[in-house]
Write a structure and sequence with these properties.
2 domains; alpha/beta; 9 helices; 38% helix
């Protein structure tokens, strides 16, 4: 399954888990092949829980746009997510890290060119983990670029946002008095080692612990490394927020060339079926193409 002339519709297939993996079974993948020799390879790492489903349509549009621009793009559903094997409650953060490596290994064997890791929301945490892992590989297998869409700065931040969904549902379903009554919270149940059900997903203490340990940390760059950081807003700010700027300074200090911007787009990962974000798609293609040789 190689990128080649006349490539068009994405190719769907199942990729067996890496030999020796804790979690067996197959991972669902979509490969978007460019026409001709790729100008680069892009591995997409999706966000957490329902954000994966909400963002599918827009991510597919972006993947097709990147393929038209000459990039070979692989989307992989992690263990227990989307159409991959397993249930959400089966997964550990380390399983998702292993799946990210699995996807990158497949992409390295089936396409050529600079390697980009594209992470949306919590997918950005996996992307930075994988970039650190590839820093020890041969130069041709190292991640030369990270494309981060609306990244979360840390696993604890992502976990807190997910737990808020439970509070919101309690508020809507039972009123403010119930949510403020001091009832047993999901966070307390996780601390006791109990799984919790939130927005149709069973979150286990083991997965929560792994997520809590995740951080968006820049690996020290050896050679040219590029970070493209894109936030979205209904009314974009002229400059990144102070919190984002501190993050970007850390990447610059680690030797990364940083390009950051905010584009006009809805919070599509929160809304089912939203796929109208032409500024985001155009900005992404432009940012990658500007630095990669054709």
């Amino acid at each position: 399954m190689n990128a080649g002339p006349g490539a068009g519709l994405p190719q769907a297939f199942f990729l067996p888990a890496a030999p020796g993996s804790r979690a067996t079974g197959q991972r669902f993948c979509l490969f978007h092949a460019p026409a001709g020799t790729p100008r680069g390879r892009v591995l997409y790492l999706h966000p957490f829980a329902e954000e994966l489903n909400n963002s599918r349509r827009l991510v597919a549009r972006q993947a097709r746009a990147l393929a038209r621009a000459g990039y070979a793009v692989l989307q992989i559903d992690l263990l227990g997510c989307g159409d991959s094997a397993g249930a959400f409650e089966d997964a550990l953060w380390s399983d998702w890290q292993a799946d990210a490596r699995l996807g990158l290994d497949w992409l390295a064997a089936h396409a050529s060119g600079p390697v980009w890791l594209w992470g949306l929301r919590t997918g950005a945490l996996l992307a930075s983990d994988l970039a650190t892992d590839t820093a020890t590989r041969a130069p041709a297998e190292q991640a030369t670029g990270l494309l981060l869409w609306q990244p979360v700065a840390s696993g604890p931040q992502a976990l807190q946002q997910f737990l808020r969904l439970h509070a919101a549902s309690q508020w809507l379903g039972a009123g403010a008095s119930a949510s403020a009554s001091g009832a047993d919270t999901p966070a307390k149940r996780l601390e006791r080692g109990e799984p919790v059900e939130i927005a149709g997903y069973t979150l286990t203490p083991a997965l929560a612990r792994g997520l809590q340990q995740a951080r968006l940390v820049p690996p020290v760059a050896s050679g040219a490394r590029r970070l493209v950081w894109i936030d979205t807003a209904l009314q974009p700010a002229a400059a990144p927020s102070p919190a984002t700027e501190r993050q970007l300074d850390a990447w610059r200090a680690a030797g990364w060339s940083v390009q950051a911007r905010t584009v006009t787009a809805p919070a599509f990962w929160q809304q089912t079926g939203t796929d109208d974000a032409p500024d985001l798609i155009a900005a992404t293609v432009s940012a990658l193409s500007a630095g990669d040789a054709a």
